[in-house]
Design a protein that fits this description.
Layout: E1 3-8, H1 17-32, E2 37-42, H2 53-59, H3 67-85, E3 88-94, H4 102-111, E4 118-121, E5 124-127, E6 133-139, H5 156-165, E7 170-176, H6 183-208
Parallel strand pairs: 1-2, 1-3, 3-6, 6-7
Antiparallel strand pairs: 4-5
The structure holds flavin mononucleotide (FMN).
Flavin mononucleotide is lined by residues 10, 12, 16-19, 94-98, 139-142, 179.
Keywords: Flavoprotein, FMN, NAD, Oxidoreductase, Plasmid
Cofactor: FMN
Pfam family, one: Flavodoxin_2
């Protein structure tokens, strides 16, 4: 039985494009693996806290010295356990102000831990989360994969780096772009991602079988 960790991070609830496409990605994974187990983290509805003086200390190796530090460590350990259990990550990452939502960044802040999800050696940093594949649904009002706004994309390169830093390099980005270019462009963009989900999830599942 395989496990998918499904992380959504939209602030827009039912209106979210990324969450809808994440749902369709999971449905497609399930069509290839009916026994798929899903661990869901909806960071838009239930955000993990931003780092503060206690959590920053606890997550960087200090012995917890108060309840806030104990709780921060416990949450981080839970999130990392979910990550380690999963074979597949499905991440919904809207673009907000050129980057990922702060809720998703806060999740990364809780799972990137030296000695646990990455390490430093003489040959440089090494990701310790091996053998996972990831599908990242990106939703954007504008167009960033090509054209004049491309240099303003602080979303995809950041996500790619954070995942790679932990050792997750088998990553497929599914981009719903031009969502703010009118109803027709929006529908076309969503439909294009739907097609891409069918193709890439099918290919990945066949490769893994
Ligand atoms: C607070 C906020 C900031 C946004 N910033 C950007 C942006 O910098 N660039 C962009 O192309 N679209 C931007 N958008 C549009 C969203 O990327 C678009 O609405 C997308 O559908 C959001 O994903 P979601 O529907 O899953 O929440 C922004 C939307 C919101 C709500």
């Amino acid at each position: 039985m395989s496990t998918a960790l499904v992380i959504t991070s939209s602030a827009l609830g039912e209106a979210s494009v990324s969450s809808q496409l994440v749902e369709e990605t999971v449905a497609r994974l399930r069509s290839h693996d009916p026994a798929l187990r899903v661990i869901a983290r909806d960071l838009g509805r239930n955000p993990v806290p931003h780092l503060d003086i206690d959590s920053a200390a606890a997550l960087r190796g200090a012995e917890p010295s108060n309840y806030a530090q104990v709780n921060a460590l416990s949450l981080s350990n839970d999130l990392i356990a979910e990550l380690k259990t999963a074979d597949t990550l499905v991440i919904g990452a809207p673009m907000y102000n050129f980057g990922m939502p702060s809720t998703l960044k806060a999740w990364f802040d809780h799972v990137l831990r030296a000695g646990i999800t990455f390490s430093y050696s003489e040959s440089g940093p090494e990701g310790l989360i091996k053998g996972k594949r990831a599908f990242v649904v990106e939703s954007r009002g504008g167009l960033y994969s090509e054209g004049p706004a491309q240099p303003m994309d602080s979303q995809e390169p950041h996500l790619r780096n954070l995942l790679a830093f932990m050792g997750i390099t088998d990553v497929t980005f599914l981009r719903a772009e031009k969502l703010a270019f009118g109803p027709e462009a929006r529908e076309q963009a969503i439909e294009a991602v739907r097609q891409q989900i069918g193709k890439t999830v099918g290919e990945a599942c066949r490769k893994a079988a």
